[in-house]
Structures are given as C-alpha cells and as structure tokens.
Amino acid sequence: MLPLKKRIHHPIFVVPLSLFLSVSGYVMSDLFVHWQKFWLGMYLAVLLPIIISLPLALIMDRYFKKFQSQQKELEHLDTINKKLFLLISHDVRSPLASLIGTIDLVADNDLDPEEARHYFSELSSKIKNVNSFLDGLLNWARRQTQNKPLEFALYDSSDIIKLTHDLLEPTAKLKKIRITMDIGAYKIYSDKESYSFVLRNILHNAIKFTPIDGEIIIKTFVKNKQIYTTIQDSGIGITNKEIIKILDGENWHTTKGTSNENGSGFGLRTCLYYLKKNNGTLLIESKLNAGTKMIIVLPQG
C-alpha cells in the first residue's frame, strides 16, 4: 500500500475521493431540494467526477513523479559532490605537502649549482607525478558528477603501482619508512582510476600507521584468475574488532597515525564501495603490534 504522501495525488486516491464527494453532495442536496429526476442526477454525479478527475489526476501524478525523480537526482548529485570534495582534499593533501617540503628546502638553503640542479630535477619529477595524478582524479570526478558508469578496461597494474609509489614516497621518507616493491606486469580488468584511488588510500594508511624507520612491502601475484595486490607494513596493527568495523563499510572508522596524523574515515569506506563496483574485494590480515597486510583483489584481464 502506498504511503499517504505518495497516494494523495495518485488516480486511485483522487478519483474515488472525487466520486465520494460528488455522490455525497448530491444525496445531501436531495434532502433539501427533492430532485425530480433523482437517478439521472445520480448518474451525472457518478460520471462527471470520473471524467473530470481522472485526466487531472493522471497529469498531477506524472508531474509529481517527475518532481520526485528530479529531487532524487539532486540528492544523489549532492551526495557525490560531498564525497568528491572529501576525496580530493584527502588525496591531494599528501602530494602537495611533499612538494611544499621540497620547495621550502630549496628556498631556505644556500645551495651550490650542483645541489640546486638535483633538487630542481626532483621537484620537476614530483610536479609531473602530481599533475598526472590530478588529471586522472579530476577526470574520474567529472565522470562521477555526470553519473556516468565506470570505465572498465585492461591496464597494467605495475604502471599504477609505480605512479602511486612515486607520489607517496616523499611522505614515507619524512618518517624514514622504506618502501620495497615485488610487482609483475599483470593485466587487471576494472576501472583504472578506481584501482588507483584504492591503492593510494591503502598505501597512505600504511605510511600513516607505520612508525619511524619502519618498512612497507608492495607485492602482486595471480591466483584463481584474480590479481592480488598486497601492501604489508610493519605498523601498529589492527584488532579483529576493528577489522570487522572496517569491512562492514557502513561506519566511519578512523584513528590517529603513529605521528599523530589525523584521518576522516572516508578513505577505506570509499575503497570498499569502489571495489564492490569493480567486482573486487578487500582482505585484511593483521595482529596488534605486528603490522598489517591489506590485500586488493580484482579480476584478471
């Protein structure tokens, strides 16, 4: 049964109501006027509200359905916009902080030409990485706001991993964290920017929860026609209770990093959402004070 708000402009509600009011009004008027042709008037009292109210009710119903559809679309776009603002601020902050650190280093030191060339070369490389990252992120964000489907394609997982490593390695260096890679050129079939987003967030979290002088290992392998991307850190670890909260995907779960870094809980929650959209999944293996292994599983090309 339809709720009252949805029923009030629907023909199944409007027509019987019009009919009831018309017939009731006619019968009550007959008590005072005593119509000579009572049944003729009764027929008219029944037919006229049906003839008049039915087309009006159909027009009203069509209008309200269109209005409700537009309202849902606006709410959907508003949700996406809020999500994208969080995404961009979450993902852009780390690479920009790295760029600022390098620029400050060059600006605050009296460098000889050789050192200056080294730092400017490093800065140029970082800017190219950030520019490539922003291009992909903004293109992906544009597709989300236009409500377009994800663009599934074959791509080399190692290309995305190397770009993500180059983007976040300066952040790891600030904590003296070593990142080593054991990756193959495996073909994944999914939305490339979704994979990039998930990988970036998980590596960022690994850096966040790994103490100074720690280590992070990135590996890829194939199993049962699935590509596994593992990011293992020597960080503080996660309890089983926290793992359940994270994988539930409904709660905003966040804790401070080993250097007191803040988080919003947005990243992992959104990772789970996009992995599901890409027919993938996230596995977590961890013990307190013994590190964490995050495993991204996506279909092989």
TrEMBL record:
The chain crosses the membrane at residues 12-32, 38-59. It catalyses: ATP + protein L-histidine = ADP + protein N-phospho-L-histidine. The lineage of its organism: Bacteria, Pseudomonadati, Bacteroidota, Flavobacteriia, Flavobacteriales. One of its GO terms (molecular function) is phosphoprotein phosphatase activity. It comes from the Bacteria. It is an enzyme of class 2 (transferase). It comes from Cellulophaga algicola (strain DSM 14237 / IC166 / ACAM 630). Signal peptide: none annotated. InterPro entries: BphY/WalK/GraS-like, HATPase_C_sf, HATPase_dom, His_kinase_dom, HisK_dim/P_dom, HisK_dim/P_sf, Sig_transdc_His_kin-like_C. One of its GO terms (cellular component) is plasma membrane. Keywords: Kinase, Membrane, Phosphoprotein, Transferase, Transmembrane, Transmembrane helix, Two-component regulatory system. Pfam families: HATPase_c, HisKA. Residues 87-301 form the Histidine kinase domain. GO terms for biological process: cellular response to phosphate starvation. This is histidine kinase. Its EC number is 2.7.13.3. Gene3D superfamilies: 1.10.287.130, Histidine kinase-like ATPase, C-terminal domain.
